[in-house]
Design a protein that fits this description.
Blueprint (H helix, E strand, L loop, with lengths): L1 E5 L4 H12 L3 E6 L12 E4 L5 H8 L4 E4 L11 H22 L3 E5 L28 H18 L4 E6 L1 E3 L8 H10 L6 E2 L2 E6 H14 L5 E4 L2 E4 H12 L7 E2 L1 H17 L8 H7 L8 H7 L6 H14 L7
Parallel strand pairs: 1-2, 1-4, 2-3, 4-5, 5-6, 6-10, 7-9, 8-12
Antiparallel strand pairs: 9-11
């Protein structure tokens, strides 16, 4: 079967391409700017832009299955227009191209951030509502709007399956991702303090396997939360120290202090032409539901996330192999 992967050079995308190849699929990879992460792989590369419908129609011609990984992740409040163009209008373009070219199934990657987190004392599952509060971060609102667009396409007859992963971490993180950058910074001793918070982290390879199983088995219109394990950042830092021998910060700042400091740290990163990691938006994301259920995916797909400790070790060893951190 011939499949198209959008966002194929992103962290999720390049792992998905590898997973699909391992499952015997013929892979066509939609790339925008560069092909990093795909060198040497037996894939068909096509240039395109999810904001440009004609290039999508061309890329999907002759394709049976589309995995839509492409998206814009932002932990800033100043990028609403781009978030809408990519995460909402881009999704509409994907849908229109699928319908025009007769694609048999679309697997759409949304996000745990598209869902309302409260109440925190109750498990979050596939029945939870999509975010609608205008005071929520722009990224959350854009992913929720994109998912609503997918629901409308389902009503129009398109065969769609939706995947909502939690915080993705794992190997083949070339750029790297936001949390990948945190891991690199800790290994390079560039982080003076930690945050007294945690998140649900999931291995990118488990997300890939869950998504492929969903594409192959799931009923039309299915939604799956692919979660992993909730863990505090300081516990992950201790594991890094144990594995690498690099001293990590002992101080874990309370969330209220971090929120007060976030505008200054964001501005400082901007002045130094660096990517901000801890912003008001990323800190708000850390204030999330600890109990994210993957029971549906486990029951219907046999999904079972591996231990987080294994994921962190594999990720660090991959970073070391790329020369991004010191070998250990």
């Amino acid at each position: 079967m011939k499949v198209l992967v959008t966002g194929a050079t992103g962290h999720l995308g390049c792992n998905l391409v590898r997973g699909l190849l391992n499952h015997g699929y013929q892979v066509r990879a939609l790339i925008h700017h560069d092909r990093s992460g795909l060198d040497g792989l037996p894939v068909q590369l096509v240039m395109g832009d999810i904001c440009d419908l004609p290039t999508l129609v061309s890329a999907m011609t002759g394709v049976d299955l589309v995995f839509h990984c492409a998206g814009f992740i932002s932990i800033l409040t100043t990028e609403k227009e781009r978030l809408h163009n990519v995460n909402v209008q881009g999704v509409q373009n994907i849908i229109d191209a699928c319908i025009k070219t007769g694609v048999k199934r679309l697997v759409h990657f949304s996000s745990i951030h598209a869902l309302v987190q409260e109440p925190f004392d109750q498990p979050l599952d596939e029945t939870r509502s999509l975010v609608s509060d205008p005071h929520r971060p722009p990224y959350d609102l854009s992913k929720a709007a994109g998912e609503r667009t997918v629901q409308e396409a389902l009503a129009r007859g398109l065969d769609v399956v939706v995947i909502n992963p939690t915080g993705i971490v794992g190997p083949n993180d070339y750029r790297p991702s936001h949390f990948g950058q945190v891991l690199v910074d800790l290994c390079r001793q560039r982080m003076p303090a930690l945050i007294d918070a945690g998140f649900d982290w999931v291995d990118v390879r488990d997300v890939v396997e869950g998504a492929i199983r969903a594409a192959e088995r799931a009923p039309k219109g299915s939604i799956y939360l692919l979660s992993g394990h909730w863990q505090k950042i300081d516990v992950i830092a201790r594991q890094i120290e144990t594995l690498t021998g690099v001293k990590t910060p002992r101080m874990a700042l309370p969330m209220w202090i971090c929120i007060l400091a976030a505008p200054f740290s964001t501005a400082w990163a901007h002045l130094r032409h660096q990517r901000a990691v801890f912003t008001s938006v990323s800190l708000e994301a850390l204030h999330s539901n600890r109990f994210i259920s993957h029971e549906k995916a486990t029951t219907e797909l046999g999904y079972m996330p591996r231990p987080l400790e294994q994921t962190i070790e594999d990720t660090l060893r991959w970073f070391a192999a790329q020369g991004m951190i010191k070998a250990f």
